[in-house]
Amino acid sequence: GMLYAFSGFSVYNIFFNHFHEAIIFFPLFLWAMDEYMYHRRRGAFALCTFICCTVNYYFFVGQVVFVILYWLVHFFSHDSEYMKISKKDFGLLWIEAILGVACSFVLLLPTLYAITQNNRINNPSNGWNALLYDSNQRYIHILSCFFFPPDLPARANFTPDSNSQWASLGAWLPLFSMSGVIATLQSRSKHWYKTLLTILFTMALVPILNSAFQLFNASYYARWYYMLTLMMSLATVACLQREDVDWGRAIRWTLAITLIIGLSIGLMPTITTDSASGKQTVFYGLEKYPTRFWAYVAIALVSLLLLIIIFKYYRYHKKLFLRMATGGVAVIAVVYSLFYITTGKTQSDNTHREIIPYALNNGADIHLPSDGRQFCRIDVYDGMDNLPMFWKRPTIQAFHSIVPGSIMEFYPTIGVTRDVGSRPSVDVYAIRGLLSCQWLFDPINHGQDFVDPGTSKTRMPGWTYFGEQNGSKIYQNEYFIPMGFSYDQYISRTEYNTLPEADRSLALLKALVVEDKDLSAAKTTLTHCEEIDSQDFSEESYFNDCKERAATACTSFTTDTKGFTATAESSKKRLLFFSVPWESGWSAAVNGTPAKILKVNVGFMAVQVPAGKATIRFQYRTPGLKAGIAVTCVSFALLGGYLYATDTTGRWRRKKFPSLPKK
Fold it and tell me: What is the DSSP letter of 382?
């Protein structure tokens, strides 16, 4: 339990703290499988399936793959209880699996609606990249993660160019390292976990097999290694219970591999030649951070040295050995995890200088003229990710991988990469107007200055200095456009796509971009913009466009937990644009009458409003939530019926009392 709980995977993923939920519940999944196969315990597997699926859908995919492998290895290893399973019991096992998944539909179905919009899921393994990793350093990274404490997620050290940052590559077992696993693999005895470990190590080295734990998505992650470390921990403990294991040989092999990796990376010479003078310089070591690298090597070697000392008591003082081994695991776990956390803190944003006083204060020291009067978004220049979320303020900068698909569609069209975060650069300054961004925060203690020292001007046009609050310099957008505005002209999506990428963000303020299938709806209120590619895309033209759009903005805009409400006045019928990502869960009403929502500006929403005063209400209902609740309720009822029907103990049935004797 301690080996598994404090493995390299667990410590690495302190950064991703929600991963630990999967680490906690996964052993119950295997326990439930064994309970069913060995004791035919009904319901436990369904319940654990429900828990694991509900806790984390991403990890559940990998867990399903692992459980199938686990079952097959047991079966083909001639486990008697697995071999003699009847067709009925096998069918009931599948019923429990299906019911367990169905019980989680209250969360699973809305999740499926959300993630299927994300283009990151459409990335299957193919070609040579399905057989070999594109980075040769990744193989060394995979190997080293079993023999050394893990690298920091953002600071790859052993293999700086393995392109495996954030991949959760960690599987080191404190004190024992790979000695128990190597002892298992060297043993001539046949055990199911030896077969399973061989399969898992092979899968780790073949990209397409590694991707099986995430539905064959080619993006490299090793976030299934917690299941591997559980089997490694099991193999280590199982070897301690057997007398035929040659621990001395296994430890020598582990020590040799550790030294080979450490010395090869730490002392390998690299020769560089100066292009100007032709002078050659020799550098020793391939690691990026030598001090931390040698500390990792020292921890790994000291751990093995301590293991050698403890093993002197293995054969003759079992109780003392167990106490020393447990204490050794605890000491090494504390030392290396504290070292990991400490080095991580030194590499991250200063906690006491920035995070505590300016992020965790919930923005209490921020007071803007727009507060309580007008909805607006804020921008952060070269600051910490998600800083505005601590302040509970809408923002255009966000690190979040699960977002509406319309956002993933919008940003690439203007030249902004959108994978796990929205980070529009200052080059696309026009979208600040489009997205109703009024304030920009430039953290004083973090990153570059928003004012270019070379020109003494702000890095985006139209911004002026407002003041200094909450550890940031604040700038105001002089050409702010309030939420909910309209256009006089439109262009089709096809015309938009023909524009140069650099001009598209500016074009979005000149004409409404309408999907080709909705052009008929736009023609009733807007005129077509002829020759959009010949328009003026200068800064002065951008300022004028912002003023024109701002003049048509809503008189009020308020948000709540279910949607937003806006009021508008106009002398004519028009299409009102809202920079809110389009999703199927939105519905709209204008003056209480249901209205059609158009998908415009490559992923946002617009609705037609009549002349005069209009109240616009947008309501959001999570797609799939109602259906998911219904499926969950029905599934729990079916699970209850299943438990009653398959009960063999009589605990669910009323006991039959013996009939009274006749007189």
Answer: S
> What pLDDT is stored for residue 650 in this prediction?
58
Confirm if 589 and 617 have CB atoms less than 8 A apart: yes
pLDDT at 661: 53
Please give the pLDDT value at position 655: 47
Q: What angle do CA 20, 21, 25 make, to 5 degrees?
A: 115
Q: How far apart are CA 418 and CA 113, in angstroms?
A: 19
pLDDT at 185: 95
In angstroms, the CA 134 to CA 547 distance is: 50
Domain match, 473 and 512 both: no
Nearest to 546 by CA among 433, 647, 407, 623: 433
Instruction: Pick the closest to residue 414 from 508, 481, 342, 332 (CA basis).
Output: 508
In a domain, 663, yes or no: no
pLDDT of residue 420: 87
Residues 306 and 393 reside in one and the same domain: no
Q: What is the pLDDT of residues 442-452, one digit of tens each?
A: 999 888 999 99
Residues β-bridged to residue 159: none
Answer yes or no: do 565 and 583 share one domain: yes
Distance CA 438, CA 379 (A): 8
Helical pair 137-147 and 192-205, crossing angle rounded to 10 deg: 150
Residue 250 covered by a domain? yes
pLDDT value at residue 123: 87
Q: Which two tokens stand for residue 8?
A: 């390299």
Q: Is the dihedral of CA 112, 118, 119, 121 positive or negative?
A: negative
Cα distances from 130 to residues 66, 211, 217, 394, in angstroms, run: 20, 9, 10, 41
CA distances, 252 to each of 171, 255, 307, 311, 394 (Å): 20, 5, 11, 13, 58
Compute the distance between CA of residue 422 and CA of residue 78 in angstroms, rounded to an integer.
52
In a domain, 657, yes or no: no
- The single-letter DSSP state of residue 355 is I
pLDDT of residue 316: 86
Burial 104-141 (b: 16+ CB within 10 A, else e): bbbbbbbbebbeebbeeeeeebeeeeeeebeeebbebb
Range of the domain at 598: 485-620
Could you tell me the pTM of the whole model? Answer: 0.90
Residues of the chain with pLDDT under 50: 652, 655-657, 660, 663
Long-range contacts of range 331-335, CB-CB < 8 Å, 24 or more positions apart?
331/306, 332/174, 332/175, 332/299, 332/302, 332/303, 332/306, 333/2, 333/6, 333/174, 335/299
